[in-house]
């Protein structure tokens, strides 16, 4: 006799140690999914050879660019720039600002699957451009 399909049920334990059902709501759990994607993306960056570790990671309200020079984190505190995102026919541009260490952050932009992203970064008189595709 074939097995009967039962949809998965998510259960949690509340503050009084009682088991309760958790209602599926994509809006409520969007941050959880984004954090999971960020962790996955960061692990993919860390697994690359040191010279290829520059990476773009989606955040809940934008994106973070990690800057690495061969094996070492590159000090991005004097960097700034612009992040251009092409989601199909939609184009958006936001400022990239130093977030300390080797991070640059762009707030107020959404990175959809398949989006093409260009980070134009300047440090003093030096300028560089990095291209990404969101998976």
Short structural description:
With 135 residues, the protein is of the alpha+beta class. It has one helix at 26-47, and strands at 11-13, 19-21, 55-59, 62-66, 68-69, 72-73, 79-87, 90-98, 103-107, 116-123, 126-133.
Q: How would the blueprint of this fold be written?
A:
Elements: E1 11-13, E2 19-21, H1 26-47, E3 55-59, E4 62-66, E5 68-69, E6 72-73, E7 79-87, E8 90-98, E9 103-107, E10 116-123, E11 126-133
Antiparallel strand pairs: 1-2, 3-4, 4-9, 5-6, 7-8, 7-10, 8-9, 10-11
User: Total domains, how many?
Assistant: 1
Taking all residues together, what is the mean pLDDT?
Answer: 76
- What characteristic shape results from the CA principal axes? elongated
The profile of the biggest β sheet is: 7 strands, antiparallel
State which percent range the strand residues make up.
35-45%
**Named CATH topology:** Immunoglobulin-like
């Amino acid at each position: 006799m074939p097995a009967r399909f039962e949809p998965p049920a998510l259960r949690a334990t509340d503050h009084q140690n009682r088991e309760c059902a958790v209602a599926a709501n994509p809006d409520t759990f969007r941050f959880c999914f984004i954090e999971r994607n960020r962790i996955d993306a960061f692990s993919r960056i860390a697994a690359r050879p040191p010279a290829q570790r520059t990476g773009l990671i989606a955040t809940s309200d934008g994106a973070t660019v990690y800057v690495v020079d061969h094996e070492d984190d590159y000090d991005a505190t004097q960097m700034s720039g612009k992040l251009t995102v092409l989601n199909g026919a939609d184009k958006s541009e936001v400022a990239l600002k130093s977030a300390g260490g080797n991070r640059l952050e762009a707030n107020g932009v959404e990175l959809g699957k398949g989006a093409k992203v260009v980070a134009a970064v300047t440090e003093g008189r030096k300028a560089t451009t990095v291209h990404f595709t969101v998976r």
